[in-house]
């Protein structure tokens, strides 16, 4: 049998009499190992003094993934302390069997995992791992396996399995709703037209309603404003915001959070053909505002504009948060360690910031002053979708979205372009992270959900 002991730098190992543990300090990623007289293998994995929950999750996940051949007969995880992190250890363990290569003919075998822990800790970790693995699979799915219709099917199936409602509006329904910006972006994809999903989770004891909006571009060529060919393959991940919203509703439903959630997910491809919108075109939107399309590769804000307008028109929400892999400028400003946060509401911004510090899905607040809005003035439409200058792009995008929230008093925009798709042990190229679910659930729980 294989035994795994997660060890913090304050954990006592005095009950183990083994020379192989001499000098073992429990530093993050440090490993000690011995075989007992009954041929049982004992692994001690250092977790150090964690700065946040994600550090624990990733350390456990990476160790089991890399040791899967040595642990092929199964592993039992035994806890020696660190109650606060037990569900994170469970989550990391269950995430370790994630596989990017699900389309390969031959699949790797992963070890079975058991825990010596309270059922509630195990269950919580399982709920997070199940949801995050699901949306990571969505993010890593190739564009031809992930049309707007297919992603909508996946979201609807998740709702049926996990206890939240999903309504899917097809192209005709979107036309009837007046989703002109969403439909405009999707014009270049005739075979796979746009769809719009509305997700609902309710709890009888809820006193607050939170709206969540997620960008769902299943593949982004840039449209007529074509992206460079290098790394365009990563544009299959341009639906990380949509994935985060669906994953959050799944976890909220599984945990029975005392909150009402309304999700809005516009889904489309951004492709090229003779029907595609062109730079200089002026399109309408659900709100009635007209938009001059300066660059067709600034498509995410167009579809979010319709979704934000719809949710603020149809529902009362106490808080409204949107997530999107929106701008390369967010990566230039913050790298891959934090998402860009834009919000005029100090309390909401602080709550999200502290939720990020605790979970490890960090956010950093950017300026939100109205001076930035001047860059979006258009001569021929109510506003344009891209400023003329290449600087301040993430902020300008946020100010664009703010024009479609009907002066909502508690709105936040999260640009997750740098955090939704990153390097990991799962492959040689970047892959989906599931960023946003832990952050949002922590925020909801901090508000009494």
TrEMBL record:
<feature type="active site">
    <location>
        <position position="301"/>
    </location>
</feature>
<dbReference type="GO" id="GO:0070006">
    <property type="term" value="F:metalloaminopeptidase activity"/>
</dbReference>
<dbReference type="GO" id="GO:0005737">
    <property type="term" value="C:cytoplasm"/>
</dbReference>
<dbReference type="InterPro" id="IPR000819">
    <property type="entry name" value="Peptidase_M17_C"/>
</dbReference>
<keyword id="KW-0963">Cytoplasm</keyword>
<keyword id="KW-0464">Manganese</keyword>
<feature type="domain" description="Cytosol aminopeptidase">
    <location>
        <begin position="295"/>
        <end position="302"/>
    </location>
</feature>
<feature type="binding site">
    <location>
        <position position="215"/>
    </location>
    <ligand>
        <name>Mn(2+) 2</name>
    </ligand>
</feature>
<comment type="function">
    <text>Presumably involved in the processing and regular turnover of intracellular proteins. Catalyzes the removal of unsubstituted N-terminal amino acids from various peptides.</text>
</comment>
<dbReference type="InterPro" id="IPR023042">
    <property type="entry name" value="Peptidase_M17_leu_NH2_pept"/>
</dbReference>
<dbReference type="InterPro" id="IPR043472">
    <property type="entry name" value="Macro_dom-like"/>
</dbReference>
<feature type="binding site">
    <location>
        <position position="220"/>
    </location>
    <ligand>
        <name>Mn(2+) 1</name>
    </ligand>
</feature>
<feature type="binding site">
    <location>
        <position position="299"/>
    </location>
    <ligand>
        <name>Mn(2+) 1</name>
    </ligand>
</feature>
<comment type="similarity">
    <text>Belongs to the peptidase M17 family.</text>
</comment>
<dbReference type="GO" id="GO:0006508">
    <property type="term" value="P:proteolysis"/>
</dbReference>
<feature type="active site">
    <location>
        <position position="227"/>
    </location>
</feature>
<feature type="binding site">
    <location>
        <position position="297"/>
    </location>
    <ligand>
        <name>Mn(2+) 1</name>
    </ligand>
</feature>
<keyword id="KW-0378">Hydrolase</keyword>
<keyword id="KW-0031">Aminopeptidase</keyword>
<feature type="binding site">
    <location>
        <position position="238"/>
    </location>
    <ligand>
        <name>Mn(2+) 2</name>
    </ligand>
</feature>
<keyword id="KW-0645">Protease</keyword>
<dbReference type="Pfam" id="PF00883">
    <property type="entry name" value="Peptidase_M17"/>
</dbReference>
<dbReference type="InterPro" id="IPR011356">
    <property type="entry name" value="Leucine_aapep/pepB"/>
</dbReference>
<dbReference type="GO" id="GO:0030145">
    <property type="term" value="F:manganese ion binding"/>
</dbReference>
<protein>
    <recommendedName>
        <fullName>Probable cytosol aminopeptidase</fullName>
        <ecNumber>3.4.11.1</ecNumber>
        <ecNumber>3.4.11.10</ecNumber>
    </recommendedName>
</protein>
<feature type="binding site">
    <location>
        <position position="220"/>
    </location>
    <ligand>
        <name>Mn(2+) 2</name>
    </ligand>
</feature>
<keyword id="KW-0479">Metal-binding</keyword>
<feature type="binding site">
    <location>
        <position position="299"/>
    </location>
    <ligand>
        <name>Mn(2+) 2</name>
    </ligand>
</feature>
């Amino acid at each position: 049998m294989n035994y795994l002991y997660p060890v913090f730098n304050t954990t006592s190992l005095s009950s183990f009499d083994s020379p192989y543990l001499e000098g073992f300090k429990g530093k993050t990623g440090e490993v000690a190992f011995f075989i007992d007289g009954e041929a049982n293998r004992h692994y001690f994995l250092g977790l150090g003094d964690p700065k946040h929950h994600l550090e624990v999750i990733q350390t456990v996940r990476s160790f089991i993934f890399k040791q899967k051949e040595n642990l092929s007969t199964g592993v039992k995880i035994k806890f020696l302390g660190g109650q606060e992190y037990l569900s994170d250890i469970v989550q990391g363990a269950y995430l370790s069997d994630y596989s990017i290569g699900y389309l390969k003919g031959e699949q790797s075998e992963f070890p079975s995992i058991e825990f010596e822990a309270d059922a509630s800790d195990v269950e919580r970790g399982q709920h997070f791992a199940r949801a995050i693995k699901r949306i990571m699979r969505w993010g890593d799915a190739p564009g031809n396996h992930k049309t707007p219709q297919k992603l909508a099917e996946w979201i609807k199936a998740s709702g049926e399995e996990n206890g939240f409602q999903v309504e899917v509006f097809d192209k005709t329904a979107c036309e009837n709703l007046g989703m002109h910006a969403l439909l405009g972006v999707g014009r270049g994809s005739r075979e796979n037209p746009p769809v719009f999903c509305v997700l609902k989770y309710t709890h009888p004891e809820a006193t607050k309603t939170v709206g969540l909006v997620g960008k769902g571009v299943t593949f982004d060529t840039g449209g007529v404003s074509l992206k460079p060919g290098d790394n365009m393959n990563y544009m299959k991940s341009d639906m990380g915001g949509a994935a985060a919203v669906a994953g959050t509703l799944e976890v909220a439903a599984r945990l029975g959070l005392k909150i009402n959630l309304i999700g809005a997910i516009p889904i489309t491809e951004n492709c090229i053909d003779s029907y595609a919108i062109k730079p200089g075109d002026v399109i309408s939107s659900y709100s009635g505002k007209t938009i001059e399309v300066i660059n067709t590769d600034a498509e995410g804000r167009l579809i979010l504009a319709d979704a934000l307008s719809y949710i603020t028109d149809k529902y009362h929400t106490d808080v409204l948060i949107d997530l999107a892999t929106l701008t390369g400028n967010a990566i230039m400003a913050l790298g891959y360690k934090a998402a860009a946060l834009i919000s005029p509401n100090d309390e909401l911004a602080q709550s999200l910031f502290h939720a990020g510090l605790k979970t490890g899905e960090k956010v950093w607040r950017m300026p939100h002053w109205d001076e930035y809005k001047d860059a979006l003035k258009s001569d021929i439409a109510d506003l344009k979708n891209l400023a003329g200058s290449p600087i301040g792009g993430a902020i300008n995008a946020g100010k664009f979205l703010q024009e479609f929230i009907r002066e909502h008093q508690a709105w936040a925009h999260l640009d997750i372009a740098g955090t939704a798709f990153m390097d990991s042990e799962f492959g040689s190229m970047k892959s989906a992270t599931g960023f946003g679910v832990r952050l949002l659930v922590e925020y909801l729980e901090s508000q009494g959900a």
